[in-house]
Amino acid sequence: MKKIIITSLIIFANTVINAQPPAGEAKLGDFYGEKISTEGALSFSDVIRKVQGGNDFENVKFTAKVTDVCPKKGCWLKLETPQGEEVMVKMKDYAFFLPVAAKGKQVVIEGEVIMKTTSVAELKHYAEDAKKTQAEIDAIKEPKKEVRVTAKGIVIAQ
Hints:
Structural class: alpha+beta
Mean pLDDT: 86
Number of domains: 1
Distance between the termini: 53 Å
Strand order of the largest sheet: 3-4-5-7-6
Helix content: 25-40%
């Protein structure tokens, strides 16, 4: 019985530790995922305009400002568009996470950019991760067609 309790406590502690965003200050030049350079990065507004016009990108490098990072694990982030909207970024294959300190930083991201319809269930999940109120979560009633980024590498640019 003692072994079961000790094993359970170790598993619980490990889960809590691993459910945190990575530590770090997100300093200039820090990279996450695949190591990429900042050279040749397009403007985010150009990429958004082309995707909304029907041109998906399998691989593109662009610069943008981070407006939010998943406070649970750092497993997603949001970027600000020039029109004041936000674009969701997920990490390719859930292979890396971003520290919360990246919020407000200018980054260069390399990855896929497409138009996607996000389900109500997924939208509610992101709202829960972002610690929205229950009223805000319950207000999500329809799927949303939006630009979606799947990052394979991110570098802090400013």
